[in-house]
Amino acid sequence: MTFVVSIASNGAAWYDGFNYVDLLNPEAVRAFIKLGYDPYLRFKEKFGRFVPGVFTDEPNFSSSRPARRTGIPPRGHQHPIYSVPWTDKLPEIFKERRGYDLLARLPELFFNIGNYRKTRLDFWRTLTELFVESFTKQLYEWCDKHGLKFTGHLLAEDTLLSQLLTAGAVMPNYEYMHIPGIDHLGYRIWYLLLTAKQVASAANQLGKEHVLCETYGCTGNYPSFADRKWIGDFLLAMGVNLFTHHLVPYSMRGRRKRDYGLNFHWSQPWWRYNRLIEDYLARLSYVLSQGSRVVEVLVVHPIAGAWCSYTPVNESEVKKLDDDFRKLLEKLVELGVDFELGDELLLSKYAEATDSGFRVGRQVYKVVLIPPSPCILRSTLKLLEEYASKGGKIVFIEPAPSLVDGIESEELESLAKSCVKLDVNSLTLDSILADPLIKLEGEGTGKVLYHARKVGDQLAVFVANTSRENGFRIKLGVKGEWRVEEWDPLTGEIKEKGATLEGGRTWLEMTLHEVGSRLFVLEPGKPAEPRPEARFVEERIKGSWRLRLLDDNVLVVDYCELSVDGKNYGFLPTLRVQKILSEMGAGAKYRLKYRFTVKRKPSGDVWLVVEEGEKLKVMLNGAEVEWNGEHWIDWNFPKAKVTELVREGENVVEVEGVMNLDRYVEPVYLLGKFKVEIDGNKPYIDGDLPEEVELGDFTLKGLPFYAGRIILTREVDVKSGAALLELEGLNAALAVVRVNGEERFAFTPPYRVSLAGAVRESENKIEIELVGTLRNVLGPLHREDPTFIGPETFEDEMTWSDKYVLRPFGLRSIKFLYPKP
Fold it and tell me: Beta 649-658 vs 589-600: how paired, if at all?
């Protein structure tokens, strides 16, 4: 049997023609620090103030792993590549730490022979230690020495298998991060259950004040404030309390607009209102970074089971372990059991069995759960035996582990027999915790999360509904007698909250709307009497509304004819044209013809936008376009007034240029206060917008590509006692409601605003400002938005549709809510 050490060669496009470095080699990392970190010492007087820290993004030891099938000499047959990470000094380091020769047992890393369980565990444990010591610890120590915070996140933290392949285990790295962090990607939250619990658990145990998340990546151009709240609430409930947004582009030019956004850019229609959602997240982040989290259950992390099971020849055993572990964590959430995870390498350093509980760093737990896994470490077994001897509760979830350090263990078998054994499907709250500090009862099982923190003699409890479809009626019971305040992170207001005493608990009843959340602060004392939640009678406002655009409407022209040196390539999407020209390389001279139709010429001005148009020759209907320094999205989107050049019927924009490495073929845009309709797959300008409109989806009312703000206005007689105004079926980033000039904001279901102090018993001027997004102008325009949005989303020909696929923008109805007698 032959083994080959593969050294990655340069040429990887993702790494600008180079390749990834060996982060298991401390000398390579020291060279990286010298080249990449030391030069910044010239700004050291600003460290800790203007430069608070250093962010590392996706370090790992797997990016050079061979992924393709290759010919193996001398016969040249094609074989799949089965590989594991390697570094030059691994054999000698392994022998020093594990006491035997790794090279003699290499086959056991791939095949189930010999003592393969122990060999694999020792191998991956050694890699994990090397990665922490070589990369994470060295960067942490450099930052610590120079007054900087080391933060960021590792690659692929989300499953047992993915973290094994990229870092061995992620949790040990958090010991050497001042602000440990994770990554959030896409329109999804529950995939982060393990990821967020790993980082928050380590941070709480090690006394780290903040937990960071790189947030909103791969959500594209659409996310509303409600979307951002939904994602943010989940992360806050999990333990994140510091948000770093992805991403802030220098420009939206070319493919930058299709990067792994959300793009935090001043061209966003909601930019002027961004503080609303940021203040909400900031208030909660502050409260949820005070004191320490109250958690009573520790789940031992089963990465050792993954270590001893993994073979690149067959990953199914680790995938099964992943599935079983996730089912356990989801079951705990369903039961309303908050928990933290205990990494075994960290437990070996920071855990001890005490009479008051199982202590890990500053956290103390009442119950220790051992998840389904083939193996635990000997250091963990010693801790569990000591905790059991002190009467501590240990619960084994079947199938229970039988190996210690990869070897069958009678001691572990004996311990398991003396402890509680349960199947994940038979778990109940009482079987884990007989008298928990906090109980959740009512609807929304598994959808409602809570995060409780002890701050002195006070208790802060954040409750969040993760459902985007349903609201729930719930009861929250806190052991003891408490006086309760509700703190509103949307407004900063504080008010007393009534509660009842029953069974030795203070019970709070509440309704959590879709994506709803509540923050309570409790202190010892008698609660106020609860007041019944208000009930309302609805009255819809009927009729049309005056329409006013605060920004220009847009016609997107994203198909063109390409010709190069006299050869015509036909009528193609601009993304396809870009690909053709890129393959030709620098120096190709091209001509583009964009065609658009004006059925009826609008009465107002019309503007043409061509990206980097000032560097190109641009003609409209045969006349050269003159640029005057004005721009649209940013300075790379110059706009020219072409009112006199536009005509009814077909119009042609011609663009001539020379291809280079920094040239992009993009759509052209027409701007103005006109109406746009779409006939089949062909959008066109159709005169002026109406002055009055009915409520509904405004993409169907002349604004299919609109990326701005609209004002809807009318005068309404309001009956005495109106308490709230509700925007039903809102599809926008947010809405601004003005009643007789008094301003309110609605961006989370059920999209209600208070009328207190604003409404009068007569005619009232109601103004609704709907704030859009860039999605319907920058796309993706030819497919539905997937969960995960990146450059490939726009370019994938398998999902392409010539039809324009738009997100709704508008609202269904507006109604007043009156208190029900």
Answer: antiparallel
